[in-house]
Amino acid sequence: MTQAPTPTTDTVRRLIRTLLKDDGGGADHAPGPDVRPVAGARPGTWWVGDRHVLRLAPDREASLRQRRELRVRDLVRPHVPVSVPVSVARGEWAPGLSCTLDTRMPGGSAEDHRVSAVGETDLAGLLTGLRAVPARQAETLGVPRATPRSLEALRGAARAAAERLAAADEFDPVRLGQLTQPAAVQLGIQPGPAVLTHHSLTGNHLVVSQDGRVRGVLGWGGVAVGDPAEDIAGLAVAVGAPAAVRAATLAGYGARPCLRGLWLARCDAVIHLAEALAGHGTDPLPLLRVRLRRAWEAILLERVTDLRGPEDGP
User: Which of 42, 30, 82, 47 is nearest to 66 (CA)?
Assistant: First the structure.
């Protein structure tokens, strides 16, 4: 595979002038906007002035995902109550490598701003809207089907990781005892229609205003048709387990998918922190510790023992 060139400020500024000229908004003699890399984001992500963000696909596979993402965003936008980025210009920044200039959403991330009670209704609307997107229509755009994960297998990996965290005085492995083997079986995936899932509802992908409203959702490149508990799990890590469960309940999900999402999040958080302590992964340890704490916030739903019945929801 040919290695992509390293973008510089000058090459990005020239690219922006070309994109905006093609879009009818630029000129050869224009000095070009202020551009700078987005701190903490993936390489190839640049702020362009105060209103736009440029994303450069690093390879051909990422280019295919980015082009699919643009189509998926157009499909999802009418169904959800929060903003989805809009591409104002697109093209190639190197042979075979795509790029998109997107609108910049005002607000911060859920890593920095607490989601309010009204913001939880925004998240509920997001989950409801994703379920309303026709799965077959998404698949015609190239959205893959994701096989539901085995909670039993994840439980085993989390127990081993918890022991390593205990040795580092980071986590009490006894807490994982709440997820027994019978409970893991009971929370296994149930027959039912798969739904479109964002599959990456991290705090960095939730745009939150100062008043705690969720104004937008970023990061649509990893969408999949599959288990809605994955999005509940993402929210548990991003905004805390209680808020995630309240939002999922408002969206019509019952006890089983909520608890399944909760345990997916908890096991993932334990595993990811253990991997980071071992020198693997790129997320900073303080952020992973916050995610672990949020995923393990107590909720009343954990007292539910009988998960059978119509109240289980989708």
Answer: 42
Beta strands in 163-220 (DSSP E): 195-197, 206-208, 214-217
Upper half-sphere CA count for residue 243 (Cβ side, 13 Å): 24
Q: Which residues contact 143 (CB under 8 A, 6 or more apart)?
A: 68, 72, 196, 223, 224, 225
Bridge partner list, 214: 208
- In sign, the C-alpha dihedral spanning 4, 69, 215, 229 is negative
Summarised one tens digit per residue, pLDDT across range 157-203 is 999 999 999 999 999 999 999 999 999 999 987 777 789 999 999 99
**CA–CA dist 226, 139 (Å, integer):** 11
Alpha-carbon distance of 268 to 264, in angstroms, equals 6
- State how beta strands 214-217 and 45-48 pair: unpaired
pLDDT digits (tens, 9 = 90+) for 243-267: 999 999 999 999 999 999 999 999 9
Q: In terms of C-beta density within 10 A (0-12 exposed, 13-18 middle, 19 or more buried), how is residue 203 classed?
A: buried
DSSP 169: T
- 248 and 217 Cβ atoms separated by less than 8 Å: no
Contact between 194 and 145 (Cβ < 8 Å):
yes
- Which tokens go with 8? 């510089």
| CA distance linking residue 7 with residue 53, whole number of Å | 15
User: How long, in residues, is the chain?
Assistant: 314
Distances from the Cα of 188 to the Cαs of 154, 182, 259, 275, in angstroms?
A: 11, 10, 10, 25
- Which tokens in the block code for residue 177? 């005892």
